[in-house]
């Protein structure tokens, strides 16, 4: 897996702190969501939130705390959403083996024929 290192100078101190701590932010998010690629998505969402956030004159320590808190909260939200989706949805293959109650072979044949006509 390739590590992406961002080396750029930003006009906003908060965005510069984001760039400087990118890999650490991804590691923190990955611990919460359990997947590095999802963690990168979370950090990207945090970047867009920072871009639209009003510029505040905070101390450097407060900026870092704010940045890490945004990533942490977004990662937790993403984890909760993922857990909820898994709770209410299942793999697509599960639906293939559902038995239709009261379906005779003749009715199944008629239904499949109708679907084939629609598909054509």
Automatic annotation (TrEMBL):
Name by which UniProt lists this protein: Extracytoplasmic-function sigma-70 factor
Keyword list, A-Z: Sigma factor, Transcription, Transcription regulation
Record-level Gene Ontology MF annotations: sigma factor activity
InterPro entries: RNA_pol_sigma-70-like (IPR039425), RNA_pol_sigma70_r2 (IPR007627), RNA_pol_sigma_r2 (IPR013325)
GO biological process, one term: DNA-templated transcription initiation
Domain of life where this protein originates: Bacteria
Record's keyword annotation contains Protein biosynthesis: no
Pfam families: Sigma70_r2
Residue ranges constituting the RNA polymerase sigma-70 region domain according to the UniProt record: 20-83
Species of origin: Pseudomonas syringae pv. pisi str. 1704B
Keyword Transcription tagged: yes
